[in-house]
Amino acid sequence: MALPKTELHLHIEGSLEPEMMFALAQKNGVALPYADVDAVRAAYQFDSLQSFLDLYYAGASVLITEQDFYDLTWAYVLRAHADNIVHTEIFYDPQTHTARGIAFAVPLAGIRRALADAFTQFGMTSKLILCFLRHLSEADGFATLEQAMPYLAQIDGVGLDSSELGHPPSKFAALFARCAELGLPAVAHAGEEGPAAYIWEALDLLKSTRIDHGVRCTEDAALVARLAADRVPLTVCPLSNLKLCVVDDLAAHNLRTLLNAGLCAMVNSDDPAYFGGYLNTNLLACRAALDLNKAEIVQLILNSFEASWLSAEQKAAWQ
Ligand code: ES4
Ligand code: ZN
């Protein structure tokens, strides 16, 4: 897994390792409902997306200062560099922080400073995607966009994450239309726990340029044909799917089916601190469970570059 690669589906708050969670809790005087790091790891047993999100939002409460967000992001950069990720497009959830009284500018500045250092030290390029929380209202999303307005030069696109079922993309059609007017490209989580219909909505109503997860697309042949025809990328997260019981067994994952259907699918780590591994661990687990051959691994990595927001020149430089 030494090949240069990109990562396109990574929630920076989901890279918060228990050790850092504890250290920041202590420094910031935030109470955690766990005795120690081992107790946190032992709690990472999920039966659904929601059971994970409850812990993920609780964990994020230890992040207070700009330096905390820097340290979080820098720790991810080091792990990404170790996996030979040369370009990463990361999500962050500003509403998780502004809802706790953290100023909008604080997470953005810390994350951006670490990404700038990643470029200086390793030549690692990056994009930053502001994700709206779909369990909150569209009005809350519009208020967040308003807060983002002075900083749009630092935001490369918008996404949609959090609790999927009951919160279809259509709920955010007006918000994403406004983002498009502002020149912000969109992505959206769809077809993780939600049905194929949510993927259609993400494409047609949100103008999503990629689908995050999207694994339930195989329930709708017409949708697979659309995704293949338009080369709409699917940012698949296999260990996430396993941990959140989207699949019972990695050997039953439809990753190869997606590739064989001609889809631009690739592997990502999603929330690596919670799901048992960073990008190379995901690729190795898939190779073992699905018996992927070298050509299939290379295809996944080529797809990660194709699906990225790197310029044509940057992509060509990595071929
Ligand atoms: C997430 Cl795995 C997943 N799905 C939806 N929203 C998320 N936020 C962080 N991880
Ligand atoms: Zn995700």
What are the SSEs and their pairings?
Blueprint: E1 5-11, H1 18-28, H2 37-42, H3 49-60, H4 66-82, E2 85-92, H5 94-98, H6 105-122, E3 125-133, H7 138-148, E4 157-161, H8 173-181, E5 186-190, H9 196-204, E6 208-213, H10 221-229, E7 234-236, H11 238-243, H12 255-260, E8 265-267, H13 272-275, H14 279-290, H15 294-307, H16 312-318
Parallel strand pairs: 1-2, 2-3, 3-4, 5-6, 6-7, 7-8
Helix pairs in contact: 4-6
The structure holds 6-chloro-9H-purine and zinc ion.
Residues 11, 14, 49, 56, 161-162, 189, 192, 240, 270-271 line the site of 6-chloro-9H-purine.
Describe the structure in your own words.
It is a single chain. This protein is of the alpha/beta class. It has one domain: Alpha-Beta Barrel (TIM Barrel). It is 49% helix and 14% strand. It is built from 16 helices and eight strands. The strands form two sheets. A four-stranded parallel β-sheet has the order 1-2-3-4. Strands 5-6-7-8 form a four-stranded parallel β-sheet. Strand 5, helix 9 and strand 6 form a beta-alpha-beta unit. Helix 4 runs parallel beside helix 6. The longest helix is centred in the middle third of the chain and has 18 residues. The radius of gyration is 18 Å and the shape is globular. It starts with a strand and ends with a helix. 6-chloro-9H-purine (ES4) binds next to helix 3.
